[in-house]
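Example 4.3 (complexes with small molecules)
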Amino acid sequence: MSIHVNEKTGLFHLQTAHTSYIFRVLENGELGQVYYGAQLPVKDQYANLTSMEEHDCTNTLTDEQTDFQLELIKQEYASLGKGDYRAPAYQITGQNGSRITEFAYAGYELVDGKQRLADQPSSFDDDHHDSQTLTVKLVDQLLKLELHLNYTVFEGEDVIVRSATFLNHGEPLFINRAMSAELDLPDADYDFLQFAGSWARERHLHRNHLRPGSQSIESVRAHSSHQENPFFILARPHADNNQGEAFGFNFIYSGNFKDEVEVDQFDTARVLVGINPLEFGWRLGNGQSFQTPEAVLTYTDQGLNALSQQLGDFYDHHLLNPHFVNQERPILINNWEATFMDFTEDKLMPIVKRAKELGIEMFVLDDGWFGHRDDDHSSLGDWFTDEKKFNQGIGGFANRVHELGLKFGLWFEPEMISIDSKLYQAHPDWLIATPGRKQTPARHQFVLDMSRPEVVDYLVEKISAVISETKLDYIKWDMNRSITEMYGATLPADRQLEFAHRYILGVYRLYDRLTKAFPKVLFESCASGGGRFDLGMMYYAPQAWASDDTDAIERIKIQEGTSYGYRPNMWGAHVSAVPNDQVARLTSIDTRAKVAYFGDFGYELDITKLSAEEQETIKHQVAFYKQYRPLFQFGTFYRLETPDTNENVHGWEVVAKDKRQAIGARFQILNGANPAYIRYYFTGLDPQLTYRVNDDQETYSGAELMKAGYFVPRVMDRTQPEKAPADFYAHLFVVKAVD
Ligand code: DGJ
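Answer. The structure with DGJ bound is encoded below.
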């Protein structure tokens, strides 16, 4: 049993395999956080963690109980206005305009397993075999409002999932903010690791020590954004990939979010994770309820690799579509960087045929196959074939691809509408716009009001018809702009702040209907690359296009940053042409592939234009990836933290569960002059096993490879610097146990 409730002392102790999360009923009837960290034994009380003493110059619970001072107390779901001046977890406006609530503990419910949420993505434990869910009920008698704090303990993965539900039995109310989780930590000696950037530069690691005041990451773009990913870590300053304490926080949500850490006057830290209160509000009528999306919390004292790995296990077991979790993802070729929108069936067929000859498994037709879309000014919403490009319809083209023995994938951007489209002519009111105001374009396109059921119905019908016509194997679901002038034409004025959340719930409804109707179609989410790389999307689409940047060197930073919060098989990674389209950099086809192997591998270039030698190289790369695909896609991933790794040298490794196989990569950005002998220190191997590296004759013990390192030959070929450049060089080491 992982949840222990002591009704006498009002203590709740949530235990995972290695962690304890403890809270209690406070003297004011609300809930107070007691402890979150490495596992503690279950006890009736923890006097050292719950003792209070009086401080000067602050509010007290009553005139008599002067040692109960909310400002000093760690809480589970705090409000503002009763003596705690930190950022609150929620705020409710009652009928009389007051924002004061007085919730009091009113019991709990404990069940095995975890139900999926009905209308949004969530964690789950369908078999009810390794999780427990606790719902703690609190009631505000004056408002007749119930608050449920929901906790699920995923024991094996060391993860706790939290959300909050408001149930109104009284007069209509207004929810000003409703965060999903609050965690009050007793000190603030943590580094804040965030994954920030921009389009084509997503999820670079930024690490800063917490400072007094509030620090936050957020989005108000109505998608989780390229700029700030909802995943973040609080790590002790000395913690690194191999050791040390860290908390990880993620959010099963794709819309506006806010993750905030407030360091207060006492140098304690309050963490809040939830829907961004800016551009949010919810009217809650009598008999209505509102449940927040779920926040994911994890802790380890074993370093950041362990943190990423336990999150990865949690996603595999309790978030991703079980149908795809253990399914090898196909090696694809996408025509985007090969042709952009300038293609016809005749132009594409040679690429398809050559792809088949090289062993590639799926052809993905990107943007430009529908309506009359020759550039980005038109046709979004018109999901029917452009017959100028495909005279036998898209179904005819799909047949030809399938007949060659390749799978077929297709691009859609379901949520968008072009003014130059049949859809706009028929339904101009479906476009999101604020009455009497200008509409701000982006990429010459606008956004459909996904909160309207008829819009979702239209998209289900049109997209389903194409899926059936093409016997589609895969969908790339793009989303190429942030939302402006947010306004719901069908919502009353006092519900307009609900719009951004209702929009994303509409997107989820569409995903839900399509993935249920076509359970074997693999969905890859995309938002101009990594603009919606989040757990809400991953629930429906188990992989996402990590970035529009396909340059191998930029991808090292992007994929490495992403790996802190997500597993490599959750992102697509492709070899593209050089000079690279985004940064005009030249890298070898060898380096490009070695970076892209760490992900769902594919190509995105016109392979018919490559030399015979390069095509032969691709054939070998494809064969190599097929041979080691289970290792790359399902192995345990490590970021190496060794004397050799730094800004210029990155080390990654994937290790099989039984530790009998591993592949290590060493990426060197610039070659150094006259360096010392270089060693590559493996990790995660079995110290007792004997291994061979790259099928050499020599054998090594696992201990030797990890502790003494493996000699890396220096790369320097003055005779052919173009063919074998020493800069941007990637070594790959395939390690196999010897019987
Ligand atoms: C943005 C995506 O990230 C690209 O890969 C491509 O699909 C284009 N959109 C197509 O418009």
